[in-house]
Write a structure and sequence with these properties.
The structure holds two protein chains of two kinds. Chain A is an alpha+beta fold. Chain A has eleven helices and eight strands. Chain A has three domains: 59 residues; 89 residues, Alpha-Beta Plaits (2-Layer Sandwich), CATH 3.30.70.20; 107 residues, Alpha-Beta Plaits (2-Layer Sandwich). In chain A, helix 2 crosses helix 3 and helix 2 packs antiparallel against helix 4. Chain B is globular and about 65 Å long. Chain B is of the alpha/beta class. Classes of the chains: A alpha+beta, B alpha/beta.
Chain lengths: 304, 452
């Protein structure tokens, strides 16, 4: 009996020694030299592999960043979920100065709720916006508006977007949204836009994408932008953040100061904001400090 | 000719196919005219290819047959006014899909035709035009394939150098259930169609023409066979009833036993395929100088008290046809523009008739609703019925997962969108919907690739 144990230990020990020698030499010979900075950068990145940066996964982005740093600059690269703080950290690791980028978030630009844009037809095909979009203008009859089938919800890796049961429109949860842009890419009607969060989360946007003439747009949706141009006139002369093109107004987030003057003048209430708009009369004054607690409530009210 | 009680083995295509209930209720109804509407809407993209450019403006007076849209691209077609009156506007109007397309809206005043159009009912047998002149005339008159796809017909006869054509195949299959428009014109306009086929033979420079007709149209087969006896080279070929025999690749396989390879055209196997309705339109264009301004539309449905085949001017709102058959039947859940297999449900009956409208079908709840989608049970029925030899269950899955490279590898672009797979699926899976999505994405990717 003893002999069997002894022989086994010896023979297995020899095999182990031989194998370890081979492994040792192979590891030496075929060793891949990797830049240690890649690991460091990858550690800072969130590891969500959302693709918001435009590269395959966080590690792919880290490799790109290191390569770019070797070429002298990592300007223009941004990890939307981690934000500018992480980019500054990465800059430190790579020995570069990084300019802080403005935080952004996804904004849904359609106000065609169930009440304002009633469904006239019924679609019973597969529950995918891409399929419905290729077939027809949608149940509401608006060829520009949201179809409410939730391709954006499926695309979001962060659970930051859901379809409101009452309005059947997608709602972005600001706290969760990392503005990776997955929903923007997947929306067949390009309704979702990445816009700056804005100072104190104050932002204003046109809540419609319709390029139809006023009457035609109103026929399908009571919340449509009719291209009347009242908001363009209301926007302060020095700012001129609103442009009217093809019967649709657009607020340039870079120019907009979120004064909210345009909101009350819109005849169809197609301008949406994250704060309580100023009263139209008397003399509109931009509200400086919206109460932070009531912000959510305000948004609900604007929704209505 | 098939006699009653005679057992014959009819030709058909070999791969796949289904046989849905025929429901050809309107087959016995002669073609009737329908009252002119007060206003017509003529879309400028009634064909495959580039839309026509409008050549009229608001306030212009037009007659029946006046050119209103010029097809300038290589694949495009002219559009003519189907009525006389005044142009109300040139604006985007929603088509059957609800998306807006540029259209000419005309207020109807009287019914005055262009003088160049020969409106006499006399048959004009002699073909005086040369082949190139025939093609030019077909182009001028805006003739498109009336089978449904609306491919500009003149393009088919511009045969590129190096390609040899030996047969004109006439598609009189009408394999879609419910529809009877082609059946009726074969019975009522037999002689005109025969001359149309002669014109097509001359344009293509061939001696042989084969007309494929499914065996469920015995009256049409009898009439066509009788008329064809005086035209050497024109053969009437009765075919077994099988859907989708009216697809050009399947038809070529049925009548000539030739297979069109993947990604190739009928031209590559020496064929030009045209619909029988197109043959009639070609006769009218070449012999009577009449542009394509009207067509036969079948109005049918199980609940309708009166089914009909109407001769309708292009641009007439479908609501006019609905009124003509006595209003929409109660409990109608879906109105389909085209056949039940390939047609599309429409959001409203205000949309106009186009050159490709072959029928309108009213469906009640039981017929219209999709059944509850269940899991795929891997029965492979969809594979058995696919006439293109594809694997629909697999394509659906990978298209759903957006794996476009695999969709491309599995030849989704060969799909003819006949819908046999969705029709057969015991789990009612939306096979065609997702294959169509995959096809569109593969085509988009290929286009982007070719740009690089």
């Amino acid at each position: 009996m003893d002999g069997v144990i002894l022989y086994s230990v010896i023979s297995l020990g020899l095999v182990a020694a031989g194998a370890s020698m081979i492994l040792f030499f192979i590891a030496k010979k075929f060793r891949v030299e990797e830049d240690p900075r890649i690991d460091k950068v990858a550690d800072i990145l969130p590891g969500a592999n959302c693709g918001g940066c435009g590269y395959p996964g966080c590690r792919g982005f880290a490799e790109t960043l290191v390569k770019a740093a070797d070429n002298g600059s990592i300007e223009g690269f941004n990890c939307p979920p981690a934000g500018s703080e992480a980019m500054a950290q990465i800059g430190k690791v790579l020995g570069l100065e990084v300019e802080a980028s403005e935080p952004t978030t996804a904004v849904v630009r359609c106000g065609g709720t169930n009440e304002l844009a009633p469904r006239k037809t019924e679609y019973d095909g597969p529950s995918k916006c891409s399929v419905s979009h290729a077939l027809f203008s949608g149940e509401k009859g608006c060829p520009y508006g949201c179809m409410g089938l939730g391709d954006c919800v499926v695309s979001c890796s962060f659970g930051a977007i859901y379809i409101d049961e009452k309005t059947m429109l997608p709602v972005v949860i600001d706290e969760k949204c990392v503005s990776c842009g997955a929903c923007v890419k997947v929306c067949p009607r390009k309704i979702i836009e990445i816009r700056p969060v804005g100072r104190k989360s104050r932002r204003v946007w046109i809540n419609c994408m319709s390029n139809d003439k006023g009457a035609a747009a109103m026929k399908v949706c009571k919340a449509a932008c009719i291209g009347c141009g009242k908001c363009v006139k209301e926007c302060p002369e020095k700012i001129q953040a609103i442009v009217l093109d093809n019967f649709l107004a657009y607020i340039d987030p870079k120019k907009c100061i979120a004064c909210g003057k345009c909101i009350p003048v819109c005849p169809t209430k197609a301008i949406k904001a994250t704060f309580e708009p100023p009263a139209p009369k008397p003399k509109p004054k931009p509200v400086e400090n919206p109460e932070p607690e009531s912000e959510k409530k305000d948004q609900d009210e604007v929704n209505k | 000719m098939i006699k009653k009680g005679e057992v014959v083995k009819l030709k058909t295509f070999k791969l796949g196919g289904v046989h849905p209930p025929e429901n050809k209720m309107a087959a016995g109804n002669p073609i009737e005219p329908v009252t002119l509407p007060k206003r017509v809407t003529v879309h400028l993209n009634q064909h495959i290819g580039a839309p026509a450019n409008p050549v009229v403006k608001k306030g212009d007076t037009v007659k029946v047959g006046t050119l209103i849209g010029k097809g300038e691209a290589f694949i495009s077609a002219n559009i003519h006014s189907p009525v006389s009156g005044k142009v109300f506007s040139v604006d985007p109007v929603a088509d059957g899909s609800g998306y807006k397309v540029k259209s000419v809206i005309i207020d109807v005043e009287g019914d005055e035709w262009e003088e160049s159009i020969d409106r006499s009912p006399d048959l004009k047998k002699e073909i005086t035009l040369e082949p190139s002149q025939i093609v030019d005339r077909i182009k001028e008159c805006g003739i498109v394939g009336l089978g449904g796809a609306c491919f500009p017909s003149h393009v088919k006869y511009m045969i590129p150098e190096g390609k040899k054509v030996d047969t004109v195949v006439i598609n009189a299959v009408e394999c879609e259930p419910y529809l009877t428009a082609d059946d009726r014109i074969m019975i009522e306009k037999t002689e005109e169609i025969m001359i149309g086929i002669e014109i097509m033979k001359k344009a293509a420079g061939v001696e042989k023409a084969i007309v494929g007709i499914e065996a469920n149209k015995p009256e049409a087969i009898a009439k066509m066979e009788k008329a064809a006896s005086v035209y050497p080279g024109t053969i009437i070929q009765p075919l077994k009833v099988m859907y989708p025999q009216g697809a050009e690749k399947q038809l070529i396989k049925s009548v000539l036993n030739r297979e069109v390879p993947s990604g190739k055209l009928p031209l590559d196997v020496g064929c030009v395929v045209n619909n029988v309705g197109t043959a009639l339109a070609v006769y009218e264009a070449v012999q009577k100088n009449k542009p394509l301004i009207e067509r036969v539309v079948t109005v049918t449905g199980k609940k309708l008290t009166k089914t009909a085949n109407y001769m309708v001017r292009v641009g007439t709102p479908l609501s006019v046809l609905v009124e003509a058959v006595g209003g929409m039947p109660e409990g109608t859940e879906k109105v389909i523009n085209g056949g039940p297999m390939m047609g599309k449900a429409i959001p409203s009956v205000d949309i106009p008739v186009t050159k490709g409208t072959s029928g309108i079908i009213f469906m009640d709840k039981a017929e219209a609703r999709r059944k509850l989608t269940r899991n795929c049970i891997r029965c492979a029925k969809c594979v058995m019925v696919c006439p293109m030899g594809l694997e629909p269950y697999l394509l659906e899955k990978i298209a759903d997962k957006e794996r476009w490279d695999e969709v491309e590898k599995l030849a989704a672009t060969d799909c003819i969108e006949c819908g046999s797979c969705s029709y057969t699926c015991p789990s009612s899976r939306p096979l065609l919907d997702l294959i169509r999505l995959g096809k569109a994405n593969v085509n988009r990717i290929r286009w982007e690739r070719s740009k690089k």
